[in-house]
Prior knowledge:
Structural class: alpha+beta
CATH class of the largest domain: Alpha Beta
Shape: globular
Number of strands: 12
Strand content: 15-25%
Largest sheet: 5 strands, antiparallel
Helix content: 25-40%
CATH architecture of the largest domain: Alpha-Beta Complex
Order of helices and strands: HEEEHEEEHHHEEEEHHHHEE
Amino acid sequence: MPEAQQVSQAFPFEGWSLESISREDIIRALDDAPKIYSKAYTQIARISSSLVVKYGSGVHLWEARTMTYVAKMPRVRLPKVFDAWETKAASLQEESTTTYIVMEYVQGDLVSDVWPGLSSERRLSIHQQVYEMIRELQRTRLAVPGPIGGGVSNGTYFTDYGAGPFLSREELEEWFNERLLVCQEFGLVKATQPSFTGQFQELVICHFDLHTQNMILDGQGNVWLIDWAYSGAYPPYFEKAALSRNVDPAFAQGLLRLMDDGQFKEEIQQLEDIGFALSTGAFCKPSGKLINPTPGLMEMYIRSKVYIYHGKGTMITSRAKPTLDNGNVNLQMAAKE
Length: 337
């Protein structure tokens, strides 16, 4: 999540027109460009006072495609994307791809930085703005789930490892039905629990990572949504469900109050019910037979839910890979990445 911070280092392309800069020039300049975000496999560098580059092996072209699609919606404020491309690793020993997204730098403050000092009126204004942008995103219906133009689905309900790509609503429903079967086999969900078949008939754009570190408040009091890495076409209630697991519970609750129309309570509960298969049991596959929970398995899952609700903001809390072995549960720790 980018941090809107002041930097004193010179921008490598200040005063240049973007048309006069090659992609190769941009890549070469990134090492010396001031970084406003750097974590794991994603970095963001300012190459001029008005441009940033988001890049790394954790960045993907589908984020740029979705942002370009959303930019056509007049009531949604987000950085403009100017260019995006990817390069393959030069070494034969490496298989990673690095993606680069050149986009507008939005001047302002992260909402997370200024939220504690804001008046109740300004907080309400931010909630209302975000709510209106969610409504705008959900006015357009799409036919294919996931990121615009295809890609892996990421975010709260797709495990920490992603899922897909999904080519149809039916494939998306099938994936969630498989997660449901895993929970049923472990005895965590009743065998009579309804499936997800037929539930995903409506698909809309979801940001899927709405928290205050992904929002910028500009000098005019306008809110901009940033970090669209998890965004894509999903059922409307997915956005609402993801907010219930937000890393900023107080902010999320204010937004959820505006969204509380009484709809989708049962559907959201169904997602919550399969939480084990999206977290500790992310690598499990259905065996075709019901089993009794292994001693300690439920406790492990409960601990993972406690971890989530204490604001860690992820459904993956363990690298354990539970598998079924002759009807028994075998927990094997994944190798460190």
